[in-house]
Amino acid sequence: MTVKLTWLGHGTFFIDTGEHKLLVDPFLTDNPAASTTVDAIEADFILVSHGHGDHVGDLSAAAEKTGATVIANFEIANWAGAQGMTVHPQHIGGGYNHPFGYLKFTQAHHGSGLPDGSYGGNPAGFLITFNNGKKLYLACDTGLFGDMALIGEEGVDVAVLPIGDNFTMGPDDAVRAVKLIKPGHALPAHYNTWGLIAQDADAWAKRVETETEAKATAWKPGDTIDL
Length: 227
Ligand code: NI
Ligand code: MN
Known about the structure:
- Helices cover 21% and strands 28% of the residues.
- With 227 residues, the chain is an alpha/beta fold.
- The protein has 2 domains: 1-93 and 100-134, Metallo-beta-lactamase, Chain A (4-Layer Sandwich), CATH 3.60.15.10; 143-219, Ribonuclease Z/Hydroxyacylglutathione hydrolase-like (Metallo-beta-lactamase, Chain A).
- The termini are close together.
């Protein structure tokens, strides 16, 4: 079955496996780049990479609307659980066979403080092996790190990388990340939401296709690709 990955703007994604619906880092209400609203969201699972407001801004609204299970690091899972959300805690290096596939938490170099000042543990990325065998790496918010090569050793079909600079990798380091991960297809995220992270994604995608073996797509919020 084809897995469909939709970029909802900034660091927010929707994944439809045909059997299950996943929402990643729900931030739509105050997101100038959002392609949809929390009222339109369906989800069985909500994945949270870290505690920053531009990743959990609509977590409680989305969890309440959908009744989805929130999958996050131990600290954020406890925080969400204390608010009445159904949670599944994981942590970096740990994988679990969920109904949609095998989800492993990967390292990310970033922060994870929650909007109310609570401790949000360490930030993460996600490596998901769907039931159709396709492997998706969502780097989420991170700087470049050499161990992306270890993630790449698993055979990544699609990698989504931040290119916004300032808070995360910029375009140059994101090209280096593609060289380490060696995905079949690379896509950008976490840029153009605000002027502070304005980037030329078309230019980045051209560079990726010139300097690496990967296909690259400068998608827009609301666009969907098949895995
Ligand atoms: Ni962040
Ligand atoms: Mn962010």
